[in-house]
Write a structure and sequence with these properties.
Blueprint lengths: L11 H12 L8 H4 L19 H6 L2
């Protein structure tokens, strides 16, 4: 049993028109804002950022 490939030939004008329709224009530009997503690495802890005036006494003087 032999396999015969069916080869279809198109006219050069038709092939060029198909190629132009498929590859004739560049894709739409994607803005930088759409490519980058910013989100915090962790939830902000308000207790961590509070200032305690006596904390240095506990840490360094005892």
């Amino acid at each position: 049993m032999t396999y015969q490939a069916k080869i279809e030939t198109e006219a050069p004008e038709t092939a060029e028109a198909v190629r132009q329709a498929r590859f004739g224009q560049l894709p739409e530009r994607i803005r930088l804002e759409d490519m980058v997503g910013a989100q915090p690495a962790s939830v902000p802890d308000p207790a961590k950022d509070t200032y305690n005036a006596d904390e240095w006494l506990v840490r360094y003087c005892l």
